[in-house]
């Protein structure tokens, strides 16, 4: 072989090795677990801290979510692009916030915050009482511009007001309120008119989402059945606490009629969201866990009549707060999977495979 030919072959070999090395560097880790056949191309959008309840804007170009990370000691509301870029805080940075959502047109947002009562972080729940959630009476709803400016109270009242989501039709807001003394679901027109109480049974009703056609609402609930359960529920509520250990899922028509329970188990079922076919519901549950693994939650799917239960994710940790795009091609959810530190929760987005 001539010297020039040897040089060309050597150069091509070196180039091939460099190309292979670069290609290997670009290979992304598989963020799915065995059995997760409905999820493909999972991407992590946040990386560090506690990030959850990420919901699409109406044009599906952005996500609004709550986050606690670095120097931020209490959950605040953030917006980011679908690739995780351009993260920015849109709440006041004061108090504690939760449950944010875009309003139609994506020029305004709605969320719950305690900053109107106290600019400091309210005390966290006392887990020596067991696994409990705080329902701070200082939570009120606020509507602000999408850049976070000009936050204004929305339907303020004594007691807990939070968990607001918006109908895909753009006409109604649904939320949970303690304005009658108990935790019930209400709907209201976007402009604040036409407030209507939809649930009346003693107990917690919340986490509500509309179906894509706006005709139904899915929600989680705990209704004490015995005198002892009722006494405990009321005692905890007086201390701004609820126990999420036995939430069941319900579906009702958008006017509050035709209520029916669709899960019947002894576990915690929550964060339900309708598939765009308006017939299936994806949700989070610790079904099948034991006392030692009861905080392991996965995503499940069920028909809106309670049939066809199917497990979607298989992670030994937490997967929750799922939301589909309007075409059903993408799913966003929060998870502990592949976190850098124990206890961190991040936002993930995946392609949905039927």
Please render the helix and strand layout as text.
Elements: H1 3-26, E1 39-44, E2 50-56, E3 62-68, E4 76-81, E5 88-89, E6 97-102, E7 108-113, E8 133-134, E9 140-145, E10 152-154, E11 161-166, E12 172-177, E13 184-189, E14 196-197, E15 204-210, E16 216-222, H2 227-238, E17 241-242, E18 248-253, E19 260-261, E20 269-274, E21 280-285, E22 298-303, E23 310-311, E24 319-324, E25 330-335, E26 346-352
Antiparallel strand pairs: 1-26, 2-3, 3-4, 4-5, 6-7, 7-9, 8-17, 9-10, 11-12, 12-13, 13-14, 15-16, 16-18, 18-19, 20-21, 21-22, 22-23, 24-25, 25-26
Description:
The chain is mainly beta. It folds into 2 domains: 1-30; 31-352, Neuraminidase (6 Propeller). The protein contains 2 helices and 26 strands. It has helices at residues 3-26, 227-238, and strands at 39-44, 50-56, 62-68, 76-81, 88-89, 97-102, 108-113, 133-134, 140-145, 152-154, 161-166, 172-177, 184-189, 196-197, 204-210, 216-222, 241-242, 248-253, 260-261, 269-274, 280-285, 298-303, 310-311, 319-324, 330-335, 346-352. Strands 1-26-25-24 form a 4-stranded antiparallel sheet, with no helix packed on it. It has a 4-stranded antiparallel sheet with strand order 2-3-4-5, with no helix packed on it. A hairpin with a 6-residue loop joins strand 22 and strand 23 (310-311). The protein is globular and about 50 Å long. Mean pLDDT is 92; it is low at 5-28.
